[in-house]
Inverse folding.
């Protein structure tokens, strides 16, 4: 999962009369917190997207924390998430130049033809699967509002004041309008507390940043989904979404599906023989088929993430639409765990694919 960390603690900005984004705590506490955020994200297997190497920014210190985590696990260099630096193509010398030389292969730059730093921040938000905001001012506010309007998972840590605290207050006052789940108001309040491991844990939950990769189980009516979900969670997958378990009585199903599906790294589709069907001209020759919602959701993931991010597990002799007949799938007779070798290969591929 690609997580953007952005924000700032600018003493000059904070001292201006009428500053609408007053900062709290100290620059030293801010830097230590951001470094801890970056370290924890990479330790959990995620990639980091930053937009600045300037000393007063959250981006800079999150990148340093991410580098700490990389250095702590050199044996895992083949699967180490990299740090993507999003900058204006006209921004001058390469960011983190010295660290790039000492730690080759960790950083990669993504130049954007943006006319301003604010526009570059919007690109940073666009490329991310989730965002964490800390402190900050106008540009941080703009990026946060853009992410929220696009329903991107977003946590605004208000511990250090700034735009992040103001945004979090706005989200708390109307959580449903901004895409937060019922019951998350308490977590949003927690993000306004002085920074601590509890606040960091809450931010990771609010932004749906759990252990990589995050998976959605596409399913019909079969209870095989419960068996597979339990197995995945026991195997160390930190976040498994089964839409049937997410009960929001006032939310339309398509909205609920898109909100959860947009936050995951891949999907496993259980293609079980729940229906029967036939050609209109050959009603005497029926075949076993999956529920129609299964193929709609497979198509959604295919279009958004690509075929490589979807694993099809087919139970018995169930028909597969001809358009995806050549997509790799694995059969099982009674228990989806019969496909566990394929499932583990798929998970490993997603983990490797979480690098930028």
């Amino acid at each position: 999962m690609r997580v953007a960390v952005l924000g700032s603690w600018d003493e000059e900005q904070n001292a201006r009369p009428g500053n609408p984004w007053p900062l709290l705590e100290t620059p030293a506490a801010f830097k230590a917190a951001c470094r801890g955020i970056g370290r924890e994200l990479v330790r959990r297997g995620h990639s980091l997207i930053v937009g600045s190497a300037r000393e007063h920014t959250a981006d800079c210190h999150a990148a340093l924390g991410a580098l700490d985590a990389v250095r702590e696990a050199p044996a895992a260099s083949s699967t180490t998430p990299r740090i993507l630096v999003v900058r204006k193509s006209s921004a001058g010398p390469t960011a983190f130049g010295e660290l790039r030389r000492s730690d080759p292969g960790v950083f990669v730059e993504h130049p954007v033809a943006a006319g301003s730093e604010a526009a570059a921040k919007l690109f940073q938000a666009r490329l991310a699967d989730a965002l964490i905001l800390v402190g900050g001012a106008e540009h941080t506010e703009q990026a946060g509002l853009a992410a929220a309007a696009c329903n991107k998972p977003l946590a605004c840590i208000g511990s250090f004041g700034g735009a992040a605290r103001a945004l979090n207050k706005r989200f708390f006052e109307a959580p449903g309008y901004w895409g937060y789940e019922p019951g998350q108001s308490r977590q949003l309040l927690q993000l306004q507390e002085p920074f601590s491991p509890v606040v960091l844990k809450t931010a990771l939950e609010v932004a749906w940043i759990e252990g990589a990769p995050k998976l959605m189980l596409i399913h019909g009516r079969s209870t095989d989904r419960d068996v597979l979900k339990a197995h995945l969670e026991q195997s160390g997958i930190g976040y498994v979404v089964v839409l049937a378990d997410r009960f929001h009585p006032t939310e339309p199903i398509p909205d609920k599906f898109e909100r959860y599906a947009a936050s995951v790294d891949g999907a496993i589709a259980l293609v079980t023989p729940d229906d029967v069907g036939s050609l209109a001209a050959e009603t005497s020759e029926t075949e076993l088929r999956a529920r129609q919602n299964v193929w709609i959701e497979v198509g959604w993931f295919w279009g958004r993430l690509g075929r490589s991010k979807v694993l099809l597990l087919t139970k018995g002799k169930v028909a597969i639409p001809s358009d995806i007949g050549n997509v790799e799938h694995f059969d099982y007779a009674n228990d989806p765990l019969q496909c566990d070798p394929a499932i583990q290969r798929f998970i490993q591929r997603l983990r490797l694919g979480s690098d930028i």
Q: What stands out?
A: The CA atoms of residues 171 and 177 lie 8 Å apart. The chain has 13 helices and 13 strands. The domain at 214-353 is CATH 3.40.50.450 (Rossmann fold).
